Amino acid sequence: MGVKLKVAGWLAIGAVAGALTTLQLEATARNSVAQLPLEELQQLAAVFGMVKTDYVEPVDEKKLISDAIGGMVAGLDPHSQYFDKKSFKEFREATTGRFVGIGIEMGMEDGLVKVTSPIEGSPAFRAGLKSGDLITKIDDTLVKGLTVDQAVKRMRGEPNTKVMLTVFRKTESRSFPVTIIREEIRIQSVRSKIVEPGYAWLRVSQFQDRTVDDFVRKLDEIYKQEPNLKGLVLDLRNDPGGLLEASVAISAAFLPADSVVVTTNGQIPDSKQTFKASPESYLRRGGLDPLKKLPDGVKTVPLVVLVNEGSASASEIVAGALQDYKRATIMGAQTFGKGSVQTVRQLSPETALKITTARYYTPKGTSIQARGIVPDVMLDETAEGNLFAALRTREADLEKHLQSGQGAEVKDPAREKAREEARKKFEEEARLASQPKPPPEFGSAEDFQLAQALNRLKGKSVLVSKTAVERKAEVDTN
Strands 81-83, 20-24: parallel, antiparallel or unpaired by DSSP? Predict the structure, then answer.
């Protein structure tokens, strides 16, 4: 079969798009040319000819073909996709966690780029950018009026090229220019800290190439500070997915050897696989097993996993496996429900097709597709309740989503009503120039859900959500 990478989608700013995917770098489309619908293909050729000759102005033939392929694939489900040159490049950058740029985690505030955090060791970090800085101009272009994607595109570029930013620093009430030389950036997908003596927090924001090594390194640092660790919180909130092998490895860190972590099943033989808590399932390129470096206490340390509506795909694999084996208490909100497998096959050196080929299942055989992982303990986002949960989209909310195969997901009228009411509320607050207080930063002292997870580990009372309910699946009558 050649080199295979199990990869997943990425987190676009403000939206989750996780996906469990197989990438065959050397592969081309399967030779399934028999029994083609000739009459329909003749119609397609006729339409192509009419558009080419009769349209009001000349059209690019290659673009017509590309758009036709894209439309055909997009009609299948939300996660099948045709990658042109640009989107395939972005896809591969996302799965490696590497890109060329200045190295900031960012958001938008008042139409400007806000530096959430400079990535440690990056050009932006070395240039002295700080959390809270506002970027008002990129080279000669004003940021006001740009979309997030447009701003990101202008800050990225080729290695060793310069970009000049104009920065407004609120704390000093001044603006200043800073010139930064772009270089390859590696996203830090694992963070950790000792939140109080005996208890640690470890966050995985995405499953990428270096995630397992970073996970092992962070756990080793935790145990050096706290040799007798009493409890660990594994934070998978807003983790959109990533490399399948990384999710299997992180599950294996906490589970007995050779435990089944996840299975996949579909129409083609390659889609019927079982992944276990063993090096054969998570070492993609051979080499030494990084999990051998872990302290023995990891297998038995009391564990809470935090999830929410933004936890998708590979993060759901981890939560599902640890829940099925009762190795951890899952706390938070019902997850996204991205339980389908996409296979990416290259069509040319610069284009590829991502197509759904299987569903994946937890060790007990439960399909997560369009349902998600239901926490053992439901939590609100804050002590005041759920501020943004009603607005978040899950897999079951997407048009043409694949059903679980174990009963179709019901469109919940109560959830739809709550979303509409929340949307109206935020629109009214925006009209009055009064923005709702955003949820606190994950891992901070104000993180309500983290505080509840620590209470659980200590055997103290937990403030369970009074409003959150499981999204039920209906009985499949087909």
Answer: unpaired
